[in-house]
Write a structure and sequence with these properties.
Layout lengths: L9 H4 L3 E5 L3 H11 L5 E5 L2 H10 L4 E5 L7 H10 L8 E5 L5 H9 L4 E4 L4 H81 L6 H28 L9 E4 H11 L1 H6 L3 E4 L4 E4 L1 H17 L8 E8 L4 E8 L31 H11 L4 E5 L5 E8 L3
Parallel strand pairs: 1-2, 1-3, 3-4, 4-5, 7-9
Antiparallel strand pairs: 6-8, 9-10, 10-12, 11-12
Helix pairs in contact: 3-4, 6-7, 8-10, 10-11
Length: 396
């Protein structure tokens, strides 16, 4: 550890104060001369009572105490200083030419003295002791200032964070209201458009040529896709604000329900689903169900042409009360450069003509995993299938 010099601290915390207590003027003068070259503020006291008054108004780095004084000797003064909260930890050095036997030296240490010097003493000895205690005092003062500054900084940052969180909560509430209103207001005209186009197609189908019928079909398809997009956007916006309370979830039962919902798709693609025995976790059942539905559905959708889809679902224990689950497929795979992109909303790697969908499913999955205190990532090679891995907190 680097040795610190008291001169380095003067500009930071001010000049340390030293209290000199002695009933003899010549002794006080001698101490002043000895210490005058150090960057210190020196205070005199010719009695114990005068010393106590000075400690009420000043914080001293060190006190130099004579022992034999009228009214109150150094031992009595030391005992009072040790019993006062303000001066309880203030170091002091006894300086005496009279009580030099071991009994009195031990008594000095018993009263809380940090050192005991007998007269006549070597000036360098006293100077080194003073420097030591002053440097220690300055280090403690610097530490107090640093801790105080850190505390103030933490308070400032906490207030800023609370303000930012408040603004974020208000912003999320406004976005949620907007998403609800927008979804309602947008879906209503879409329903009207779709309904009237279907009526038009039904009533005047015989009077419309092939081109007109194609226009109507294209418009109905577009309105259907827009409705799906609005619903997915609404679902995406509500992952963090409209989630259910976390409860215990039996993943085996949940996966069985998901596979039941996807039964038609599974049969159409002749998919084989293999599921390991899965653990129980704590989470939002509807969101975890949505998560597995998205990942299993994607595994089937992005399968290889003319090859039956194969999906495997499993897990391994992780650290910190987490479980790492995976959904593995034998599909077309993904290039490494797109690993992060697939989790960004509206980022499609293929045209809508090749694969239907809004491009929001994996973005929703990522938000669900993050709400559950986990992370999601992908391991894949083109033509070799993909493995979506994710962690969930709260394993039971």
């Amino acid at each position: 550890m680097t040795k610190l010099n008291i001169n380095d601290f003067v500009g930071t915390v001010g000049r340390p104060k030293i209290l000199m207590v002695d009933d003899r003027e010549e002794n006080l003068v001698a101490l002043e001369r000895l210490l005058r070259d150090l960057p210190l503020e020196l205070y005199r006291a010719s009695s114990g009572n005068e010393a106590l008054k000075l400690t009420l108004h000043h914080d001293f780095a060190l006190a130099l105490l004579d022992i034999q004084m009228p009214e109150m000797d150094g031992y009595e003064l030391a005992e009072i200083l040790r019993n006062e909260e303000k001066t309880a930890s203030m170091p002091f050095i006894f300086i005496s030419a009279i009580y030099t036997d071991n009994i009195n030296v031990f008594r000095g240490y018993e009263k809380g003295a940090f050192s005991y010097i007998t007269k006549p003493f070597e000036p360098e000895v006293l100077l080194n002791k003073v420097k030591f205690f002053v440097e220690k005092y300055q280090q403690e003062e610097l530490l107090k200032i640093t801790l105080n500054n850190l505390e103030n900084l933490v308070q400032e940052r906490t207030l800023e964070l609370e303000k930012a969180n408040g603004e974020l909560v208000r912003s999320n509430e406004e976005l949620e209201r907007f998403a609800y209103v927008a979804s309602h207001d947008l879906q209503e005209p879409l329903r009207v458009i779709s309904s009237y186009l279907q009526l038009l197609e039904k009533k005047y189908n015989d009077q419309l040529d092939d081109k007109a019928q194609k226009y109507i079909a294209t418009t109905i398809d577009a309105s259907t896709r827009m409705k799906r997009l609005i619903n997915d956007l609404l679902l995406f916006s509500r992952v963090g604000t409209r989630g259910e309370e976390f409860i215990g979830i039996n993943l085996n039962d949940l996966i069985a329900d998901v596979l039941s919902d996807l039964e038609v798709t599974i049969n159409e693609h002749k998919a084989k689903i293999e599921v390991d025995s899965l653990p129980e976790i704590k989470g939002d059942p509807s969101q975890i169900r949505q998560l597995f539905q998205n990942l299993i559905g994607n595994g089937i959708k992005f399968g290889k042409p003319d090859v039956p889809s194969y999906i495997k679902i499993g897990y391994r224990n992780d650290e910190d009360n987490q479980v790492e689950l995976f959904v593995e497929d034998n599909g077309i795979g993904i290039e490494k450069e797109y690993f992060d992109r697939v989790f960004i909303i509206f980022q499609r790697l293929h045209t809508r003509q090749m694969y239907e969908g809004t491009g929001i499913g994996l973005a929703i999955s990522k938000k669900i995993v993050e709400r559950h205190g986990g992370q999601i990532w992908i391991e894949s090679e083109p033509g070799q299938g993909s493995v979506f891995k994710f962690t969930l907190a709260g394993i039971i």
